Amino acid sequence: MTTVQLRRPESVLVIVHTPAAECLLLERVKPVGFWQSVTGTLHWDETPAQTAAREVQEETGLTADGLVDAHVTRRFPILPEWRDRYSPDVTENLEHLWYLPVTQAVPITLSAQEHTAYCWLELEEAIATVTSWTNREGLERLRQRGRS
After folding, report:
1. pLDDT band at residue 148 using 50, 70 and 90 as cut-offs
2. How much is the pTM?
3. Could you tell me the end-to-end alpha-carbon distance of the chain, in angstroms, rounded to an integer?
4. 89-96 — which CB contacts under 8 Å span 24+ positions?
5. Which residues are paired to 122 by β-bridges?
6. Which pLDDT value is given to residue 89?
7. Domain residues of the chain, as ranges?
8. Quick one: 101 exposed, middle or buried, by C-beta within 10 A (0-12, 13-18, 19+)?
9. Cβ contacts of 141 within 8 Å, gap of 6 or more
């Protein structure tokens, strides 16, 4: 009998961007049309920094040199379609926000199991395109960082 390892209800969101605020977005395999920045669940033995670096490499093929911890966390309800990945008493996820500045928009190596497409979008278009409110908020914070 195979034992299923339940996921830790904690994740990272990594916004990859250029100095000109071109932002990398990835389209999830499921649900279709779900655009997001790099995301991923913490393994039980990982720190948020380790997860952010691992997820950037796994989802894009990029190295995570220069990761910046935004020191922002948000809680949100776990969507019903993903609840079976967690313990039955878990209803919320804790997400840690990170930024990864890169020098320019470059080709990405997608993980075919997770994503079907990628694009580099100007910041305002990325804000309008992402599906999750936490991703939108993280992009809006990037806009504010550019003004300070």
Report:
1. very low
2. 0.93
3. 56
4. 90/9, 92/9, 93/9, 93/10, 93/11, 94/9, 94/10, 94/11, 95/10, 95/11, 95/12, 95/13, 95/39, 95/134, 96/10, 96/11, 96/12, 96/13, 96/48, 96/52, 96/69, 96/72
5. 22
6. 92
7. 10-147
8. middle
9. 70, 72, 97
Spatial separation of the C-alpha atoms in residues 132 and 59, rounded to whole Å: 18
Superfamily of domain 10-147: Nucleoside Triphosphate Pyrophosphohydrolase (3.90.79.10)
**What are 68's two structure tokens?**
């910046």
Token pair listed for 4 = 């299923």
pLDDT value of residue 7 = 93
- Rounded to the nearest 5°, which phi and psi values hold at 86? -120, 165
Q: Which DSSP helix (H) or strand (E) runs through 121?
A: strand 115-122
Q: What burial letters (b/e) apply to 109-124, b meaning 16+ CB within 10 Å? A: ebeeebbeebbbbebe
Tokens encoding 82: 């993903």
Q: How far apart are CA 107 and CA 100, in angstroms?
A: 15
- Residue-wise over 18-50: b if at least 16 C-beta within 10 A, else e? beebbbbbbbbeeeeeebbbbbbbbeeebebee
